[in-house]
Amino acid sequence: MHDNPQAPSGQATALPGHRLIELSGRDAAAFAQAQFMNDVAALTPGHWQWSGWLTPKGRVIALMALLRLADERIWLLLPDADAEAFAAALRRFLFRSKTTIVVRDDLRAVGRYGAPQAALGAVLADDEATGLELDYRGEGVERSLRIVAADAAGPEDADFARRWALDDLRHGLPRLGPDQAEQWTPQQLSLERLQAFSVKKGCYPGQEIVARTHFLGKAKRGLMRLRGAGVSAPAEVQAQADTATSVAGQLICAAADEGLAVMPLDAAPVPLLVGGQACEVLPLLAGLAR
């Protein structure tokens, strides 16, 4: 990647909360393969995938876009996690690994609505003038994300950030705040829809839990997309039956009046409430899997 790419003028907006960590060195790919839940070894340089880091009990610490730039260079794009804390925790597992872990505050992520200029699916596009481009398209929406020099990113815009987060949620990409870290398994977050974890590769933290759940078919909860006036922050989702209500699930993230909730997969079709107000169930959109 060029040292000082410029964001396309008037076309892109800085994405708040998105931070970049670089893994470099002879063992970078092997280290990432041993720590993260997707198959880094199967990822060709110049491509990216959704992935995450799990606790030994199989709970998601953070989700990320993992970019394999070269055999010895990997970038982790974290949309919500504390990058410094994440990098510090990751370094504790280096042992003798020839890997350097650095938070790249000299780079920023910017989002743009419209078809990518060159990136396609999981294939990255690197341009010296405009930065590294990722295809963020999904069902019903054309958008791309670029990684550019921090001084080229421009200002943030709250309305744009809400729209971007809403499109993430609509396509089943959970935006996990600090209160939701280490709470959910990949299956409870329906991350198979994004092809974000592997059940076939070698060991990684939480792999036994993930694989057992997959092969024994014991996933009992998954994501549900909800919309309603009360959908605004993490909260309980209640099921209404006659005059009684009971806890049916947990709303974990929201943008505008939509959110994602972890719900039982076999839940009966009954009226749902969030914050005491009725909400409707909407289908999760496809197309964001990489």
Automatic annotation (TrEMBL):
A biological process term (GO) from this entry: iron-sulfur cluster assembly
Domain of life: Bacteria
Keywords assigned by UniProt, alphabetized: Transit peptide
NCBIfam families linked to this entry: ygfZ_signature (TIGR03317)
Name listed for the protein in its UniProt record: Folate-binding protein
